Structures are given as C-alpha cells and as structure tokens.
Amino acid sequence: MYDDDRDALAAEYVLGTLSTDERDQAEALLAIDPGFAEIVRVWERRLGELNVMVEAVEPPAEVWEKIRTEIGSAGPRSAAVAETGLLATVEAAPQTVSFTAPDIAAAMTPESAPVAQFELAPEPELDLPPEPASDLAAQLPQDFDTPVPQDLDETSPVAALASSLLPPELEAPSETPLPPGPSSPMMPPQTKRSADVVYLERGVRRWRGTTVAMGAIAALLAVYIAVAQFAPGLIPLSRQPQPVIATRTQPPGARLVAALQQDPTSPAFFLTVDPQSRTLTVRRVSATPEAGRSYELWLISSKYPNPRSLGLVGDEEFTARPLPANFDVDTVRAASYAISLEPAGGSSTGVPTGPVLFTGKLVESLPGSPS
Amino acid sequence: MLMQTELVWLLGAVAKGDAAAFERLYEATRAKLYGVLLRILGRPALAEEVMQETYLKVWKMADHFDPAIASPITWMVAIARNRAIDIARKRGDVSIEDEPEALEVASEAPPPLARREMTEELKRLLSCLGKLDPEKQRIVLLAYYSGWSRDQLAQKLDIPVNTIKTWLRRSLLEIRECMGSRA
To answer: Do B134 and A207 touch (CB under 8 A)?
Structure first.
C-alpha cells in the first residue's frame, strides 16, 4: 500500500536506518510533499519520546560562544514572520475575562472553561526490578508473555532494555532530588510520584492541534511539568522540591495538577492536588508578588453557592497545605480553581473581592494504559 | 526546569528574533541535545559541531515549529539527529571494535530509568515496544539511541541485513498501529 510505504519510509528516515539512497529519496520527498513531511514530524515526535531517557551531558562553554557568533553574523531574524505555525497560536488574542464573585460559579462550566492542551506527563518513578538486566534475553520474554494490567509492568521490561542500552546516568546536576512532601518523609527513589497538570488560561484560547486523548474520564487537557528533563540552572526553581505524592501501590487514577498561566509571556502557577494524600501545593514560577496584595486560591464547585477559599498563595515558591477536610475527593476532582488578587491577607469577605486572574478546571487523566 | 509550554513560548519568541529567548532556550536544552549527539557520534568534537549547526537551524527555522505536531524538544532533537545520522553514514560503517559497546550493561549502576520521569507518551511508546519480540525491540532502540545503520545492526547482532530491514519495517508498522493514528 502506498500509504504504508510512505509511512515506513518516514519512520525509518526518522529512526535513521535508511540506506543512503533511500535517505536522499526521503529528503527529496520531504521538500516537495507536505503530506510526507507531516508523517515525518509525527514519527519524530513519537520516537522522540525516547530521548527522555537519554542522559543529559553539559557541552563545553565554547559551543555557545560559537553559536552566538554565528547568530550575530547571520543577522537579526526578520520580525515580519508569516503568521503560520507557532506565531498564529501564540498571538491569538485571548479574551480578557474577569469575573465578579457571583459570576464565578456560573462561569465555571465546561463550555466556558478555557482550554488548552499539551502532552500529559505524570511523574512516576518506575519500580524496576532491582537486579540489573544482565541477561535481557532471558528476562524479557517472561514479562513479555504475561500480560499485566498495570501499564508500568508492561513498560518495565522494555524500559529496562532501553536503559540497559544507555550508560548509567551521570550524577549530573540535572537530577532533581526528591524532597519530603508536606506531610510525608523523604521518599525513596522507587516511590512513584503522580501529578497531572492542567493548563489554565485567562480567556479562551486554543493551541492548534495536539490533543492527546485521555480516556473516558478526562475531558480536557494536560500539561506536563518536565522535572528533570532539561539542564537546570536557568530557573532556580528547577532545584526546588516537588511535592511527593502517591506510592506505587495506589491506584494510578488519582492525579491532578493544574497549571495556571495568564498568557504566554507570563510564567505560571502550578497547582498540584493529590486527592489521596489530600494535599495541595501551589508553585509560583514567577518571582514577584504584588506589594500589598495577596493571591488567594479558590475552589469552585456546583456543590457550593460561592467559591471556597483554599488559602493564600504565599510569597515563597511553594505553598503547600492539606486540603480542607470537608472536601471529598470527587468534589475536588470536579471542581474548578481560580486565583484572585486580594488585599494583603486575603479576602475578608469569604469570597473573591479582587479580580480573578486565573481560572480553569482540573482534569483527571487516566494512567497511561495503551488505548 | 522548563516545561513544555515555556519552551513553546521561547521558540515563539525566537521566531521573532528574540536573542535572549534563544539563549534561554539553549540553556534549557543544550545538555539533552548534547547527550543525544554524543550517543550517536561518539566523539565530542563532532558532537559540538553538530550542536552548533543544530542551534543555528533552530534559530533560523523557529517559525516553522508547529506545536500542533511537534514538541519543542523532539523537534530540536530531530534536527540534531538528522544531521548526526548524515555524518555517521558518511563516515561509513565502522567496525564492531570501534563502536561503543552498546549492548553491554552497566551492572552496578541502578537502572537509570528509575530516577527519571516518564511522560505518558513515552510510557505508551514503551508499552507498544514491549509488544514486539525482544530482538526487534533491541534493534529499534539501538537504531534510535545509537544511530546504527542496518549494516551495523546486522553486523553487531549477527543477523542478515535483509532480515533487519524486514524486521524494522514490520516493527515500526506495529508500533504505529499500537499507538493509534493520533499518536
């Protein structure tokens, strides 16, 4: 079939296993056939996930110097770029949304909740078999033959194979140490963390494409916080503790995180809610709280006539606290969340008095069982 | 730590000629790309060269980045890998003795994956990979991580080249079907 042939060509091109002639052919096709180009991009993205497991290695500083010199001589990029690709999505003007208190509950319907999506990436730690895979051939078929409902068990042998093909991870600064959570002791490396991120935006705006289907329950979107994926140092927060959440034995379904962002130029808040340990954590990515004002976090649910305060977001990077006991897990999952800007010390009326800057719904994602 | 959305934003800024954003993007992604390149090329000098070429391309082509199809890091890695494979092929197939012993396992170190974060999509990919025969898994992973050609795979694994070719094609097809058309 022609399509299979094209797909196979694209896949092997991305993989790198084409012969030189085939490679030339693929590159020619790339230049003239946009459909083929798109298939190549799909494979690049699909296989590109494997890069998560490649160890990061700091390049010498001279590399940047040379790049910078070349950039300089290449001249400044033209500002008049065609409205294609990224720019069209970045600059789609968000509506300015501000809610008054009585409007909030009404506004928090699924239809009006702003939507944006990205990849979902929870942050589990794999509980790999402790013994090194010295005899992969023997190890793999056993796990391979027994179908296991736990998706992690399915991936483990392959992951072990993959990691065996990569040298041991360097003790590099890119490691993000697991810290103690708000109410739990330091977790061992095998403990699985879980978090899903929801991308909340001001206004209604849609990124083009890339919806990842999340299964029956999930309604909207997720953004993954890539914790140790890239070199640190750029943002000091990369060293900050992340809340440690579930253990591996917990059912994988309960993972909730929200990313609250005003617009693409403004860094985000990240809200992590773990229904199982009943903790919430707000992480401030941007630095400066407004003087004399406080951010307050609200839970909005049809169960309550008014938004319910979850407390202030502190000035430090992480604000962690237990969920109030009167919220049951289902309410927490289904609720919408908002951050408003209040006078210092928070709203004195029990409902938002200042502008609601960020709104969105938490999305529950299903674990990564292959659908 | 930079998350996906921030990288997307940075790329958008780079597309508009923002040199500061470009530097931030470099800082956030350089180690990952360099690691990938070292795996394939083996030699730091070569890897550095391809780093330069890659980031220059990123600078020039940032406006072609489409968040609908790509994620920033996979887009950038694809650019880097493409060039690296070009170079690796031009060097010609290297004999077994010269290649890093990719099949050997680090016996003392704990599996690196235990300390890593896995994205949902990676888990799905690994799950689909897991449905392949172990041998096929191995050649797919070796091809991706080490950038080996069919000939090198055949030589190293002692399997006829035509078999490698058939297996690769079949494996990739099965991966695609397992992951679904939207993946």
So the answer is: no
Q: Is the CA virtual torsion A103, A104, A109, A114 positive or negative?
A: positive
Tell me how far apart the alpha carbons of residues A180 and A193 are, in angstroms, rounded to a whole number: 12
- B33 shares its domain with B109: no
* Contact check, Cβ <8 Å, B120/A224: yes
Q: What total of structural domains would you count in chain B?
A: 2
Cα distance from B48 to chain A (closest Cα, Å)? 6
- The shortest CB-CB distance from A226 to any of B4, B16, B179 is to B4
Residues B130 and B60 in one domain: no
The reported pLDDT for the residue numbered A112 is 39
Computed on alpha carbons and rounded to an integer, the radius of gyration of chain A in Å comes to 23
Write the burial class of residue B114 (CB in 10 Å: 0-12 exposed, 13-18 middle, 19+ buried).
middle
Beta-bridge mates of residue A284:
A269
3-class secondary-structure state, position A198: strand
Domain span holding position A99: 89-135+175-371
Mutate to test the interface with A, among B83, B105, B131 (most CBs of A within 10 A): B105
* Start-to-end C-alpha separation, chain A: 25
* Contact criterion met (CB < 8 Å) for A77 and B5: no
Kindly indicate whether the ipTM for this predicted assembly is greater than 0.90, answering yes or no: no
Strand arrangement of the beta sheet that strand A318-322 belongs to: A198-201, A256-261, A269-274, A279-284, A318-322
B:118-137 residues touching chain A, CB 8 A cutoff: 118-131, 134, 137
Q: Of B92, B121, B149, which closes a domain?
A: B92
Q: What is the pTM of this model?
A: 0.49
Whether the per-residue pLDDT at B121 is higher than 90: the answer is no
Is the pLDDT at B140 greater than 90? The verdict is yes
Q: B159 CB near a chain A CB, below 8 Å?
A: no
The letter for the amino acid at B131 is K
The whole-number pLDDT of residue A210 equals 31
Low-confidence spans in chain A with pLDDT less than 70: 1-2, 74-268, 285-289, 358-371
A198-201 and A256-261 strand pairing = parallel
